[in-house]
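Please complete every field before forwarding. Incomplete forms are returned to the sender.

SECTION A: IDENTIFIERS
Entry label: holo-340
Bound molecule: S-adenosylmethionine
Molecule representation: SMILES string

SECTION B: INPUTS
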Amino acid sequence: MQHSFFDVWNVEEANSAIISTKQKKSKKVNNVQNSGIKPVKQEKAIEQDALFHDLQENTSKIIPPKKQLLKWIGNKQRFASEIIAYFPRNFNTYFEPFLGSGAVWGKLSPQKPFLSDTFAPLMEIWQTLQANPELLKQWYAERYEIMSQGEKVVGYEKIKAAYNAKPNGADLLFLCRSCYGGVVRFRQSDGYMSTPCGIHKPMPPINFAARVDQWKVLTGTTTFGNLDYTKAMDMAREGDLIYCDPPYSFSQSILYGAQSFSLSDLFTMIKRCKERGVFVALSIDGTKKSGNLLCDITIPDGLFEQEILVNCGRSMLKRFQMNGQTMEQEVVADRLLLTF
Ligand SMILES: C[S@@+](CC[C@H](N)C(=O)[O-])C[C@H]1O[C@@H](n2cnc3c(N)ncnc32)[C@H](O)[C@@H]1O
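SECTION C: PREDICTED COMPLEX
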């Protein structure tokens, strides 16, 4: 059966409709009001953020890059400061097992990070940034040239076809920067990258090269791994810090080819880490639909000690679905759950 890009959205709509019905029926909604975890006021984050880099003992003191290297759905660029403000002052190795575009890592710039993601072409980009940043610049410039030569959409589709024939970091790098809304999506049936060409003009290679240089500085003592989060979290020891930003259980189940992701399995991993004395911070989808409907996620009792609502503004997914129109009432807040 042929699937179009917009079929994917329809599948997602259908899924979220089912979830909404379940939410209405469910009496046991775990949310900020009744999860039993004390929410923390946002002022605390701002206050902590001002002091963070002076007090944090495990940051490399490298000035964090201001702009993203990659466009990645669900990236935490705008909220990274607020998130890291709640991290412990002292920790050993920093783990980020759902790396994506690495916004929180970039802001924190820790001394000894272990960064990983299950998506191989994505990790190829990060590993190339570390080993051969000039090659990364070249990958981008070559594809920018293809797109600039003739009809923009034709060039884009050529690169997309090359990616789909053989998924690889070089094509993904350019596609994530040039696709519609920066939302790299994969068809549910066969993992085909289906996002159409963006309406914007991708940044010129010279600007991209400057971002490569800024991000490269961060990779000095970094270890990158292409592995499942369970394997990465197993490696963490007492005193280490893990920041988890998994695919959103409600809105991102078909992104990143991660259909099989289960939040309850992640909770089991977090419990094991906590028992070993590892600090774990978890971002999960907080509110949807006008900010009134809180996602019905059953959080195991006693697993988290604190919960913070991080305001993420309007939902990018929703904006995209509305064909570029913004929806003023669509306010999204992430929940940050801490085991410490
Ligand atoms: C919400 S994104 C992370 C966004 C990231 N915080 C950022 O700022 O860009 C979730 C990431 O989890 C990855 N992922 C999905 N399933 C995974 C798994 N089982 N193990 C490791 N990574 C996984 C996806 O490839 C995706 O990059």
